[in-house]
User: Fold these one by one.
Assistant:
Number 1:
Amino acid sequence: MRIEAIDFFYLSMPEVLDIGDGSQDALLVRVAAGGYVGWGECEAAPLPSIAGLICPMSHSACKPVQSSVLGQSLESAEDIVRIGNLVRANSLDLLQADHILSGIDMAMWDLLGKRYSTPVYTLLGYKTIFPKTPYASMLFGDTAQETLEKGRNARAMGYRAAKFGWGPIGLSTAQADADQFMAAREGLGEDGILLIDIGTVWKDDVAAASQRIPALQACRATWLEEPFVSGALDAYRQLAAVAGTVKLAGGEGSHNVYMAQHMIDHAGIGYVQIDAGRIGGISVAKQVADYAQSKGVTYVNHTFTSHLALSASLQPFVGIQSDVICEYPVEPKALALAITKNHLLLDANGQVHAPDAPGLGMEINPTGLQPYLVDVEIRVQGKMLYKTPALG
Amino acid sequence: MRIEAIDFFYLSMPEVLDIGDGSQDALLVRVAAGGYVGWGECEAAPLPSIAGLICPMSHSACKPVQSSVLGQSLESAEDIVRIGNLVRANSLDLLQADHILSGIDMAMWDLLGKRYSTPVYTLLGYKTIFPKTPYASMLFGDTAQETLEKGRNARAMGYRAAKFGWGPIGLSTAQADADQFMAAREGLGEDGILLIDIGTVWKDDVAAASQRIPALQACRATWLEEPFVSGALDAYRQLAAVAGTVKLAGGEGSHNVYMAQHMIDHAGIGYVQIDAGRIGGISVAKQVADYAQSKGVTYVNHTFTSHLALSASLQPFVGIQSDVICEYPVEPKALALAITKNHLLLDANGQVHAPDAPGLGMEINPTGLQPYLVDVEIRVQGKMLYKTPALG
């Protein structure tokens, strides 16, 4: 099979709010080869990613991403890795390239799985897979009272674990944050697994973070996520040394295998969180899962959008029994739910399973997506380089 | 002053060849505030960078870059740093953002220098500045014979130092590379400073790199540049341990201060090379220059394009006397030369000076650029979000 087409679809809610909810738009990817179609999703700004797919070449190491993918042979897992390496070399100076590649990589795995009638995780080498314990991923309420109610809701929906993040957290006083942490604990209940996400707002300010550690210990948080930006390895390591029972989690900003390895090797984290829609796809995410396992660090997916992205994000670590929990979006916007006809629902034990079906096992819903499809036209020197393709 | 306008101009040679010459296109940036105009240049893929400047918001940490810059107060160096921090926070999940910010940051420094009638380096705190010894930056010839002639040309043009990179190097046998290295040495002469650039083609393959070390020692190369991709810190460190007299150089791929610090701290390099057009502008480049100095690593600019970019790239380290050499593009395409009316020519001693003039000290040439201006239109839901503005 040769790759015949790559289509990017920009989807958006009618209104996008200035809140930390990444499910308000999406970039869906369709790859076609040999009569098969695969789907993926970039966790990326749609318009710059479309531009990087189709832009004119700047020089030999700054080419549009599609030039390294279209026409390539796709017969095996090795072909997907080879194509990824081509993109990274030929688009070395196109910064957006890793995000663009991510959705294409997922779509290639989906396509290959359909071609061989087998789930992606078997192509990745997993013979046995394990269910994951989902944590409800949600934004902090604007007030501690709202957060308390959100925690109660998560519990009522059957979640044993919940993560609270973004919103007002970290931006006000340490006392205000402490009130939020305790509200989350109270809402979730004494036996729940409580995870806290700071969303990088302290950048690399170890003092600001350290000030919150006593409250995080008091509410028995399992992890403190992204106190700092991904590159601030020294700040992470200094905080890890004083965080005691609270383990650090981070890595979602990694856009290549090296960044994730640096977090594992130099940041003192207990959990590495990888977004397969950013790091270069399932291929690179699997490399990180293997590396984390070898270093005694727990791998966790980062997924805040659709169930297509969720299935893709489970594949790299679904065969690692000791990596128990997985992120599960509980408040996605309607658009994120509309991407697939089927959804990865919790089983009777409140656990999530990767689909036992070819490829990523998700059925795309072109009709349902139609209202969210954003019409884009990009013209260079009068020539149309991109126009939103037909979906369906 | 408040920032009233940011305009991006995509410039290109009529034909862009599949070679490692980054001067074949350019992304020029104009910023206007309080009746002043500043200019900068992103060393970046133009179309995705334009898209990232003006794209619709995806969520609170994935905003178009212009939303963090337009309307901001610009009175001091601190304002530029503050605006950069805003961009990094508000466009955290827009991977292309650092490249986009870079040209805007340069333009803000240029504008501020014009406003206060002083060179940018004084705004950066340098009281005394020093000339730099330029190295002629050129591509390897397709054959060793061609490389020999290029070396002779560099010498004839008065260069004491020359860097050869890209082209066929690293892609064929170790013997072919050795022939190229020796040809470069022969052409440049026994007393020349010879620098070799591999352009990341070995990715993270320490064995392939180690094989070339004896030839690099034999031709007395001062540095071996980018044997590996920027993130491959372990590979760099392993190679540094066996490279002996040949020091490693790298860092041009850094798109934030952390990546450059990781190279300095963990990669065993002797020279850190920073492209102010990629790392986030002059502001971040200056942070790296200071950090490198504190760690005993030599700072060098990475500049392969216009003399506007060259002036911007000199500012961050022009006050550090011990950082002697600077990259100087000797084979730029006509477009790169056409960007400015004035050029930073070598003095009688073959040295380069930062302009003793307000801002970056370069005069943009709108008329000369007209033939290279690329017409771009980006429409989203029928609305024109970007159309190439008038230059001049």
Number 2:
Amino acid sequence: MHPEKINPMLLKSIGVVKRQGKQAILEILPQYAQALDGLAGFSHVWVLYWFHEHDNPEERATLKVHPRRDPANPLTGVFATRAPVRPNLIGLTPCRILKVSGNTVEVADLDAHDGSPILDLKPYIPKGDSLPDAATPDWVKKLRPE
Amino acid sequence: MHPEKINPMLLKSIGVVKRQGKQAILEILPQYAQALDGLAGFSHVWVLYWFHEHDNPEERATLKVHPRRDPANPLTGVFATRAPVRPNLIGLTPCRILKVSGNTVEVADLDAHDGSPILDLKPYIPKGDSLPDAATPDWVKKLRPE
């Protein structure tokens, strides 16, 4: 199958990010509330969201960036960065779960802006997801926390 | 902004998975080759792909599953599992980079099937992505490697 022949892949918003200072509420649409059953048994969750503020043809066509818009960081292909401009505007952040209640999940450590559509939630499973010895280039080692 | 009001979010295939036994070739479309610049400086990459074999209304409406289709695993909300049936069919796997060359990336540890459309690649950054102490429920601890 040639990739261009694949039918359009349409994402549905499953909810929306509501910022509350350093924390955030994931407000899941009521029709998906049941899909949260069991999430409270995990300490962390991957939040996949849409960088909606960058949803325009120019930013989706950007192939290289200076990470964090800092010219001190080398011009780098977007697939080698976590920049919010890329062909598919998917953001990916592991978050600490503070509370799961009804159709909401309260989390810490989410960098998504208020109003970001949520695409998916996946449990963090350290066996598989945690690779403490993964190697990175020098520019990453020099990054300060955001 | 109410999530239902958000414009449809359309994914583009940026390439396709070609299986080669236990390894896989990520065949990136030539127009995105530049976006790979710098990826070779990382040891691992997150591969985001589309579970194209499950792209039908029934599986995208599934809210609960027995993980790995094993009735011994409790019926669980899909957002608390990594199951390939979910509202947005996004697969997420951290892979070891074997080689980056032109518009291809050779990887190990990818569970995607042959022909899966690739949605995004993101570098694995242990500071942030690696959470060795993340807690999981009992059914996860009992899982055997696939």
